[in-house]
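User: structure tokens for Glycine dehydrogenase, please.
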Amino acid sequence: MKKSFLFISCDEAQHICDKAQYGEASSWERFKLNIRLAYCHITKSYSVKNTKLTESLEKADVKCLKAEERKKIENQFKEELAKQQQNN
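Assistant: Done. Predicted tokens:
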């Protein structure tokens, strides 16, 4: 199958959409994505859902554990698990 210079596949469009969501897509990739969005309802739907997901995550203000906090909790869990196994 010959690869088109301007038109991209749905899979490639979704990948570029993900990159564009985080500011990692080049202007040429965004241009090709916009062409795809003009005629492909599947890609357009994916883009809309992707945007909603990103907005939801930003609104949620998710806080993640730092690596050292996670390691501390993991060690505590392993200690408690070892105690439980010794008692049985």
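User: Anything notable?

Assistant: Residues 11 and 43 are 9 Å apart (CA to CA).
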